[in-house]
Amino acid sequence: MPDFRLPDLGEGLTEGEIVTWLVSVGDRVAIDQPVVEVETAKAVVEVPCPYEGVVSARFGEPGEQLAVGSVLLTVGEPEQSGSGNVLIGYGTSETPRRRRRPRESYVQHASVLRSEHPSSTLGTPDATVNAEGERTGAGESAATVNPPATSPAVISPLVRQLARDNGLALDRITGTGPGGVIRRADVERELAARVTPDPAPAAGRRIPLRGLRGAVAAKLATSRREIPEATVWVDVDATDFLAARAAMPTVSLLALLARFTVLGLKKFPELNSRVEGDEVVVLDQVHLGFAAQTDRGLVVPVVRDAQSLTTAELASAIAAHTASAREGKLTPAAMTGGTFTVNNYGVFGVDGSAAIINHPEAAILGLGRIIDRPWAVDGQLAVRKVAQLTLAFDHRVCDGGTAGGFLRFVADCVESPITALADL
User: Is residue 141 part of a domain?
Assistant: First the structure.
């Protein structure tokens, strides 16, 4: 009993999916009778059997993928030697076909295939396919197989598909096959002619990532890679915040924000922490970092033990560190060891920012620009000085409730700064 195996599909295809069986176990098949529909990456095609006899076994169900060389059918006696090599969709002898009445699913798929390849003679007996993906009839010249002169001379549906997928008009391609048949090589030649060389790269200058810039880049990359951060924000009425700043000429807005941050960390110490291995280490001291813009770029000086400083002392320390940074006199020790960072990015004219946490810290608080906006005050609409506070935090050290509680506390301090400072 000969086994009929899934034949070489050509075009580099190594497997096909069974769409519809055209015969059942017990059916008698003739040489070159289509027995199964197979879908490849190129098309849906019918596969003819090279043997005559009774189907004694069938392998694979619709929807199943089979590799080339897998057994499709076993055909019982009467046994014949068959017709040799079988290529998809083509007969291999002059023996007339005896075909079963197609099932409904087969008719549907065949209709789809013909609509996709209108000039294809797929399924025509007495044909074979050469290495170029072209089909010629046994004992016939290429001229007898070619389409009429009114349409491009393309035999292989795979060549037609290649041209269509790449937007090539077949009537503009010169065929080099027998009788002017368009071969796969002709389509590939046209595709190669369309390829243009890559444009020269744009000129520019290179800035090495080393020194301060390199250190900052490495830290930011580590933060993005290791910290699962989340961001929360709130709009605040900063009218009284500006008034408090005006009443204390030696205290900057950043220093006031830093003071409120320290107060918030006393109430929500989880945000003054870091992750070490599989532990969250909640720190006792607040070493407060703050962003300072310099000619060399953005640096983050650190005010140590900020929790023990008064508002005036904290403001003085921030001013001194900022001056040293801009003069290039800040030591490396003064830029390391921070446990929390604050940033007044409103000085850059932006309303908000989802800042990157300064690794290995657990959070960063930012203040956007303060601008006039309509605001409800005691049930009445008024124009107030409004800003946005944003907190990015490491979700491993706390949940949104803790982060939101901290942010709301700082926001309340900004909206009622005199009350917050009076409680110290």
Answer: no
